[in-house]
Write a structure and sequence with these properties.
InterPro entries: AA_adenyl_dom, ACP-like_sf, AMP-bd_C, AMP-bd_C_sf, AMP-binding, AMP-binding_CS, AMP-dep_synth/lig_dom, PKS_PP-bd. The protein has about 625 residues and is an alpha/beta fold. About 35% of the residues lie in helices and about 20% in strands.
Length: about 625
């Protein structure tokens, strides 16, 4: 099997003057993208990057980010995405484990990159006038790569509290986007680039377009509004969009019309709601809806299910497997169960990762050879499935304590581990409970340390400095002791009992609050499935995530009857501050651009101000 670079070079040769990538008013042909990547590769080579090295990319979605990936791989190295939206400490942990040869970054993140490594390289926006074609670097026998070489290392959360780097070879992505029939793949396709840079689905977006001669359309904002997403889809004639199940549900509720130009939409990353699928089907019957499933360790996806015309509205399966993958349903002894019985899904074949970077213990536990199948190597997903008589797989939850929120994999043990390390906490427990609007949310419990002054919001502030946003509990409840099971373990089921009975706000819209502040509180309460009665807490203090802020923005625009930039909600995450901005003059273009590039900047600045206030008290 060829490498990612081989397949890209074929498109450059055959379609060099065709548009490859678009970002607002910027666009590059396949030849232009090759030369921009060549410019970056030349700089990296001068910096000492060689085959087998790891190179970090600290950047949001952009043309130059895609070019950097290609440049790094053409040198025989592997790239490591470093999401600017993750906490600084999280990135430091990843960089410490990776020890990258260099970090390339967008200009906005140059200072952050320099703090992480001695070799920070700012990405160019355009090819150098004398830039070599990218293929020049692959022609060097010292850089030549094959299907088994590492293409990238992407980090996921781990049950030990430390992130773990999944090493994925070129064959994993190549088999995903070539020789498959789950979605049309060809030069006529226009694919939306909307996934987070730390979410491996972004690689499915990028290379399903670029390795088939299609067009990739980049959404550069870290947290775009629904209006912005819809306008980009319509203006660029997007045909295919991979979006998280959470965002799909929001679109179904708020504005299914924005999907109208699409041929195919692939919700992924979480359990897909049948009710929301039905809503989109009614609104946009011509749009093919394809449920995508797969762990990072199996190169993005391993199963797809197209919702058939005769679908009866019942639970949506994860579907049939991809070509070049092998699937087994196993019992606790790693033996196959009869078809129709439930067991753990194991995935083998071309999509299986090489293992975890620097963690042979974790690799040996998760990647095993099956004696009953001639020693084939598989990844144990930890997902419980049942294979139907027609070969379609149904998903029945996790065998361990891992869940997905907004498409991101969350380990409840990771949250507990982080809480236990807090100086104000003696012990901690975390549970996942259903949200009213579908999906799940995390509620954490903590036993305060003796002699410590404990403030829940201070603990949550400290958590946000070390955990990704999706891992932050929506509530933290202090307990004097935890209930125990008969075996003496913390009884998390008992902790979770009654949480679903917590008072929830009335549905939005009745009665309509007569003040703008009341409207904001009402919208937040509905989105976050909680009561908003403290205007000194931010949207994020109440457990909100960036994805939920997109939903709140859409609802608030509808409720107040006018549009406003979503950057305002990051700039003013408190009720009173948002009221002042919405009732006052609009922010300057520079302010709006700053929050579009790095929307969490306001939140970090607010946390810094809070820490300064505490020190000065």
């Amino acid at each position: 099997m060829a490498s990612i670079c081989d397949l890209f070079f074929t498109q450059v040769s055959n379609r060099g003057q065709r548009i490859a990538i678009i970002q607002d008013d910027r666009q590059l042909t396949y030849d232009g993208l090759s030369r921009l990547a060549g410019t970056i590769a030349q700089t990296l080579q001068s910096a000492g990057v060689r085959k087998g090295d790891l190179v970090g990319i600290l950047a949001g979605r952009s043309i130059e980010t895609v070019a950097a990936q290609l440049a790094i791989m053409a040198l025989g190295a592997a790239f490591v995405p470093l999401d600017p939206a993750t906490p600084d400490q999280y990135r430091k942990t990843v960089v410490s484990a990776v020890q990258p040869k260099a970090i390339v970054c967008q200009a906005a993140f140059q200072e952050k990159a320099a703090a992480l490594t001695g070799q920070a390289i700012t990405l160019p926006l355009e090819p150098a006038p004398d830039a070599p074609a990218l293929r020049v670097f692959q022609d060097d026998p010292h850089s030549r790569i094959g299907a088994e070489d590492r293409a990238y290392v992407i980090y996921t959360s781990g049950s030990t509290g430390d992130p773990k780097g999944v090493m994925v070879p070129h064959r994993g992505i190549c088999r995903l986007v070539r020789g498959q029939d789950y979605v049309p793949l060809g030069h006529e396709q226009v694919v939306l680039n909307l996934a987070s840079v730390g979410f491996d689905v972004i690689l499915g977006e990028i290379y399903s377009a670029l390795l088939n001669g299609g067009v990739l359309v980049v959404v550069p904002e870290a947290a775009p509004s629904l209006d912005r997403i819809g306008s980009i889809i319509a203006r660029n004639g997007v045909t295919t969009a991979y979006i998280t199940a959470g965002l799909f549900h929001i679109i179904a509720e708020q504005d299914a019309a924005l999907l109208a130009p699409l041929q195919s939409v692939i919700p992924c990353g979480d359990v897909l709601s049948a009710a929301h699928v039905a809503t989109v089907r009614r609104a946009q019957p011509h749009v093919r809806i394809i449920n995508g499933y797969g762990p990072t360790e199996a190169a993005v996806f391993t199963c797809f299910h197209t919702i058939p015309d005769e679908w009866d509205g019942g639970p949506i399966p994860i579907g049939r497997g991809l070509n070049h993958d092998i699937r087994f349903v196993l019992d606790d002894n790693l033996r196959p169960v009869p078809r129709g019985e439930m067991g753990q899904l194991a995935v083998g074949g071309q999509g299986v990762a090489l293992g975890y970077l620097g963690r042979p213990d974790l690799t040996d536990a998760a990647f095993v050879n099956l004696d009953h199948a001639d020693g084939v190597r598989v990844y144990l997903t930890g997902d419980l499935v049942r294979e139907r008589s027609d070969g379609v797989f149904e998903f029945h939850g996790r065998a361990d304590r891992q869940i997905k929120i907004n498409g991101q994999r969350i380990e409840l043990d990771t949250i507990e581990h982080a809480l236990r390390k807090d100086p104000a906490v003696d012990d901690a427990a975390a549970v996942a409970i259903p949200r009213l609007g579908g999906g799940k949310k995390v509620v954490a419990f903590a036993i305060p340390a003796k002699g410590q002054h404990v403030a829940v919001q201070e603990i949550l502030h400290r958590l946000r400095e070390i955990l990704p946003a999706a891992s932050i509990p929506s509530r933290l409840i202090l307990q004097s002791a935890f209930p125990l099971s008969r075996s003496g373990k913390v009884d998390r089921k008992q902790l979770a009992q009654g949480l679903s009975e917590v008072q929830t706000p009335a549905p939005l819209g009745h009665p309509v609050p007569i003040t703008l502040a009341g409207t904001i509180r009402s919208v937040w309460a509905g989105v976050l499935d909680t009561t908003i009665n403290d205007d000194d807490l931010t949207f994020f203090d109440h457990g909100g995530t960036s994805l939920q802020l997109i939903e709140a923005h859409a609802l608030l625009q509808d409720r107040i009857g006018r549009s406003f930039d979503i950057a305002l909600m990051f700039q003013a995450p408190r009720v009173r501050a948002l009221v002042r901005l919405l009732e006052g003059p609009s922010p300057s273009p520079a302010e709006t651009l700053a929050y579009a590039v790095d929307p969490l900047a306001a939140r970090r600045a607010e946390m810094a101000r809070a820490r300064n206030r505490q020190r000065n008290q």
